[in-house]
Design brief:
alpha/beta
């Protein structure tokens, strides 16, 4: 599929984000993103790669509309974009069921719609014995199960996944990857951060490589991964 012939969903041009609460050398603002440019088209599955601390999570927060750029241009062409992250969106003293409802509503569903989908959410997450327990009692793998299950039922226009794969057991990761593949084949739009090159090769049409807050490469999955791996082994 030629992704560039599909409708444009998000566009980033020379985007930068500065955190003024974190001062760098000589008291200057810390730029989490410095110069990032790429487009996201409908039906695309985009992988985001890069070493830890280079700005990948900040990039997803920008794409989700949680933060705004301090320089450059970011355009959302009218689409519902939801971020799936273990760092955001869960209230520890609430139960899994209550968090599922809140998470689903943040992804654009009405409360009644989430409640109607709750049986499917519980079944996919395999958390029936724990769904009414506080999230504080969950392992990170259990939280990931719940987060994935809600996201798959909510079906926003664009789903952003921040390093959730690989948290928890391999069997559930494989099940989630299978559903993700089915959604990709049906034209869903997804962006995810992962250190698993095999998963990116399996799922992604394109990859953007972020290094030191800059988009070093963007394009064909195999080509960008090869360039990134050569960089790591310099």
């Amino acid at each position: 599929m030629n992704q560039t012939s599909n409708p444009l969903i998000l566009s980033l041009r020379n985007v930068g984000i500065a955190y003024r609460g974190r001062r760098g050398i000589f008291g200057k603002p810390f730029w989490a993103l410095k110069d990032v440019s790429f487009d996201l088209h409908q039906g695309e599955t985009l992988g985001v790669i890069g070493r830890n601390g280079v700005g990948k999570s900040t990039l997803l927060q920008l794409m989700a509309g949680i933060t705004k750029p301090d320089k450059g241009h970011f355009i959302n062409y009218g689409y519902q974009v939801s971020l799936l992250s273990l760092r955001l969106g869960f209230i520890h003293y609430l139960s899994g069921r209550e968090n599922a409802i809140l998470s689903g509503m943040l992804m654009g569903l009405r409360k009644r719609e989430v409640e109607d989908k709750m049986e499917a959410i519980i079944a996919f997450s395999e958390l029936s014995h724990f769904i009414d327990q506080p999230i504080a009692t969950y392992s990170s793998g259990m939280v990931a199960r719940l987060a994935f299950s809600v996201a798959f039922q909510a079906e926003p226009d664009v789903l952003l996944i921040d390093e959730v794969w690989g948290v928890g057991d391999a069997e559930f990761s494989q099940k989630s990857a299978k559903v993700m593949q089915e959604k990709m084949n049906s034209g869903k739009t997804t962006v995810f951060v992962s250190h698993q090159a095999s998963l990116i090769k399996q799922l992604c049409n394109h990859v953007v490589w972020i290094e030191d807050g800059i988009s070093r490469a963007y394009g064909d999955t195999t080509n960008v991964l090869n360039e990134y791996h050569r960089f790591l082994h310099l």
